[in-house]
Amino acid sequence: MAGNKLKRTRNINTLYKYIDNLRKNEEKNEINDRFLKQFCRFAVISNDISIEITENIDTMPADLLNKKLATYKTIIGMALQLYNTLGLKNLNNEIENGENPYLVLMREEANDG
Question: Dihedral angle at the C-alpha atoms of 10, 15, 20, 23, nearest 10 degrees?
């Protein structure tokens, strides 16, 4: 379990640094920085939940699956709000061929929602 938490923290920090680097020309302030950190946290957590659901959908009890889906919907909703608030969809034009999977997920969710 500690290994998963460490991996998640590493993924959050990597995503934060990646986006922060893309935002190099923007004015930065403490509030936007905190929102960006929250976005990264929610994006990574929602991705982890999505993977867990996908990998275990056939064996997961229905009540647990419903709880996971509800949690996913809540967290992805918060991530999307921050994605839109921070204007991260505008960064997609700056992303090269090696697109970040978390930003791809957010773009797809934003287009679906």
Answer: 170
